[in-house]
Amino acid sequence: MKKLGAAIRRNKTEFIILSLILLVGAFLRFYKIDQYLTFLGDEGRDVLLVRRFLVEGDIFLIGPGTSIGNMYLGPLYYYLIAPFLWVANYSPVGPAAMIAGLGVVTIAFVWWVGREFFGKHAAIVASLLYAISPTVIIYSRSSWNPNIMPFFALLCVYSLWRVYSKNQPRWLLVLGVSFAFVLQSHYLGLVLAPTLAVYWFLSLIKVWRNKDSRVKFILNSFFGFAIFLLLMSPLAIFDARHNWQNLEAIKKFFFERQTTVSARPWNALPVIWPELKEISTRLVGGRSMVFGEWVALFLAGGSVFALVKNRLGSKKSLMAFVLLLVWLGMSLVGLGLYKQHIYDHYYGFFFVVPFLLLGGISQAFINQSKIRGVWIVATVIVFAVYFNLQENPLRSSPNNQMGRTRQAADRIIELADGRPLNLAVLAERNYEDAYQYFLEARNVQVLEINPQELENTLAQQLFVVCELPEEKCDPVHSPKTEIANFGWSVVESKENVAGVILYKLVHSE
To answer: What is the pLDDT of residue 144?
Structure first.
């Protein structure tokens, strides 16, 4: 504590700036989080399963399913959010607040890494821009498995950095834990593996001639890999019990489905520059295509300047900059091989990279010429702050998805009158689990119809929540499985609840 106090006194201005950045980042993530958080079917499914685990002891070996490929992630994310759901008395705000808190911690982590890699100016630039990025903010305040990836991806690379640059092999244990979290957040985390493999091999080469260091490195690699396998084992156990369906789906997705992934790395080369512009626009440029292109040019040109002029300050900073470029390059190639639409959350395994690179480039300009460098960096920051604040999510009205879902569920409870029910949702991008969560939390018996066990699963009432325009709502004739399995029916009541249309259907005579 004395050393920390002394460090703060020596760097008082820097400490104040960092504190302000963290306060701004926390405000942007926590402000009215209960009204802004996303709460649709995926989020409802997650808290529904975790609540059953907490209340009924239903242990799970798998986590969320992926949107394509019929694959499942591991369960680490579910176990991670469980304590926060319990502390929040089973309110979905608890896990969302955990994600927001982790987002603030990631800001501090970006500052720490930028400080260690390049210096205080780099740390301030990187953490400030990361704190106010609209895309980063959106994925830092809702409970969803991909949203934990930026922190753990950075922890993976930082762990290897400590091994590579400082010969601290114990960090390989941290790598084992963090990479398990990355892969159980989203399978695109596999794109991070080549970067980790390259620097693990380079680290091994560095220590190979020293027997003691080599033995420590190999032992820690073994234990780190063992920890990784242990954390991945629940998914393997599930797979072994179900004829390796997940492994087969992964193999088919990456090696057989030529409509999704290309097996030829050189196919990614033509799309690297467009991908860099898109990344710069979505993450750093405040979603402005014009400014995003300028950011991409600044990243490319600034990287050349930093490397050729070698103004990064030290050999260590130069090595760190190369590490970030390798990380970014591998990521661009990996995304370039993916043939489907790329969503913002797919960038999670390298969210922090453009910010840290901008920090390093800024430090290089300031090292080259303090006055001129400060002016260049300040100009870039002013424009970045302006465009990012223009797209700040708080400028939009809250979606209030959780509140609307709870209101509709409360009305269903009133109309159900304590009897079991079947449930269906008609929507473009939502499904039943969000509503079912609040129903189960109130001990309502929601039955999922099984045509082979109708006596036990078919209720006498079906509630249909329609989130579409009324003219597109026709629950009686809908082909949706949850409605079709209910059989011939008539509408007993219809009403508007919190912006959705709620139908109560009963069996026709």
So the answer is: 93
Residues 6+ apart with CB under 8 A from 42: 64, 144, 433
Give whole-number Cα distances, 49 to 42, 53, 55, 437, in Å: 11, 6, 10, 9
If we measure between CA atoms, which residue out of 376, 223, 225 comes closest to residue 305? 376
The 10 Å Cβ neighbour count of residue 47 is 29
Residues 6 or more apart whose Cβ sits within 8 Å of residue 124: 14, 17, 18, 21, 111, 114, 359
Q: How far is CA 406 from CA 87, 230, 415, 447, 454, in A?
A: 19, 38, 14, 19, 28
Nearest Cα to Cα of residue 437 among 91, 147, 89, 99: 91
Residue numbers of the chain with a pLDDT score lower than 70: 1-10, 67-70, 253-266, 268, 339, 509
- For 393-412, how does the pLDDT look when each residue is reduced to its tens digit (9 = 90+)? 999 999 999 999 999 999 99
Q: Which residues of 73-82 are buried (b: 16+ CB within 10 A; e: fewer)?
A: bbbbbbbbbb
The pTM of the full predicted model, rounded to 2 decimals, is 0.93
What tokens appear for 273 in the block? 């520059």
Reading the block at residue 137, the tokens are: 């903010």
> What does the alpha-carbon distance between residue 75 and residue 443 come to, in Å, rounded to a whole number?
25
Q: What is the DSSP letter of 398?
A: P
Note the Cα 175 to chain centre separation in Å: 18
How many Cβ atoms sit within 10 Å of the Cβ of residue 347?
A: 25
Specify the residue for token string 């693990």: 200
Beta bridge partners of 380: none
Structure tokens given for 180 = 């398990």
133: Cβ–Cβ under 8 A, 6 or more apart, which residues?
283, 284, 286, 355, 388
Whole-angstrom Cα distance, residue 245 to residue 150? 28
Q: Please say whether the dihedral angle defined by the alpha carbons of residues 396, 402, 408 and 414, taken in this order, is positive or negative.
A: negative
Q: Is the dihedral of CA 227, 175, 69, 139 positive or negative?
A: positive
